[in-house]
Write a structure and sequence with these properties.
268 residues; alpha/beta; Nucleotidyltransferase, domain 5; five-stranded mixed sheet; 14 strands; globular; ATPase_NBD; ROK; ROK family protein
Length: 268
Amino acid sequence: MYLILGIGGTHTRIGLSIDGQSIIHSSKVYTNKNFDQAMAEIKQTVDGLGVPREIQQIVVGVAGILNQDKRSLFHSPYLPDWDNKPLSERMSQIFSAPCALHNDAELEGLAEATRGAGQTHKIVGYLVVGTGLGGARIVEGKVDQSAFGMEPGHQLLTLDEDNSIEEWEQLVSGTAIEKITGHKAKELDDPKTWELLSKRFAIGLHNTIVHWSPNIVVISGSVGKRLDLEAVKRTLAKTLTIYPHLPEIVFGTLGDEAALLGGLQVAT
């Protein structure tokens, strides 16, 4: 039995698999910002799924940068109380099984590159826009190597609108949208606002494309899936002229299961 968790800044997705290929039971809960309370709630949720047999492997994808031993979070902007807490050790203690820690966007990107929208492409750039903005570069079905992980959302951008310098994540993520507009992204329906957000997203995407040079860009997340892809492509057509043509730019197809399926892939 495999236990897979995708822990984001707002929601945690929990899945169980017997064969290591498919999820048989899953649940989606709010991510508790308090580390100890979150561990208790995760145990309660897993117990509620009715684990039919002993858990042999745990894989956790979590939003943030991992310490080099990959046993804990170094820093997560949206889960500060989790920083440097013994996440892998605590999960192993609770469920009596070894636990492997990964960045959540890397697991999602891996799944989209091998089972989802990017599966016919050699180099996949994956971007997820939700509470924050994360991503990963997947090459030939494997997460590309890095020293500390990939954090495209923390690149700095200058906007002509006010000449300020901001992190990409602070311009287009769900947190940014609520700060800028006073509304949660799911409550925002104004097409002009989404077009502006999509153009802002395109500027950061321009930089990511020239750094990663992917065959395809897959965009996912609760905010990402609401972006105007045509507005993104129109902006890139004007700015990204160094290459013969744009990479394919599409929405992800796996939704909430992406992190769980990516976790299964690294577990097996």
